[in-house]
Automatic annotation (TrEMBL):
Residues 124-218 bind DNA. Transmembrane segments: none annotated. SMART domains: REC, Trans_reg_C. This is DNA-binding response regulator in two-component regulatory system with QseC.
Amino acid sequence: MRILIVEDEPTLAKQLSAAVTAAGYVVDHAGNGMDARFMGDTEPYDAVVLDLGLPQLDGLTVLKQWRAAGRRMPVLILTARGNWHEKVAGIDAGADDYLAKPFHMEELLARLRALIRRSGGHATSELVCGPLLLDTRSSRVSVAGEPLGLTSHEYRVLAYLMHHPGEIVTRAELTEHIYAQDFERDSNTVEVFIGRLRKKLPSGLIETVRGLGYRLNEKAS
């Protein structure tokens, strides 16, 4: 899952990026509103953390322009504590949630997980497909109750598939969601990660839909 963090304060931006990356997500960062608007318009993010007080173009304007252009990714806005006007304006502009500064990083991560979960129609933090369970809180995976060791890229591929149960996910789509913007992407490596996952997961759990992509099979055992 790929997250855009829009924050102009360098220290906070670095802390946010480190925490979100450690939680198992791929992170891109924008330090001003103009870059944020462009990145949100051109890259397929699973969620955005958006500060409202940005240089060049304020966060509220960025959000309004995204929504006007049909960008539907979940957005968590960061506001100044006690400034209820910003909270109301942000929600009215299309934000899905807000968090007042200063905040605890654990709360931000919990709210981020909830936004991504709700956007995929999931009711809890545990994603289940047949015998497979992925806990988005701990980034841990198990099969029939037994822990499963995965590399970071294997986890990202599996997490994206499990956030989109029953859907056909193309190789290009997976590539866009498991790598950051500045990473040298190679869609062929997705096949490698899929192959590794198949060796670790129950037979038939990850289906290849010829000419289209991959899909999780909930009936696999």
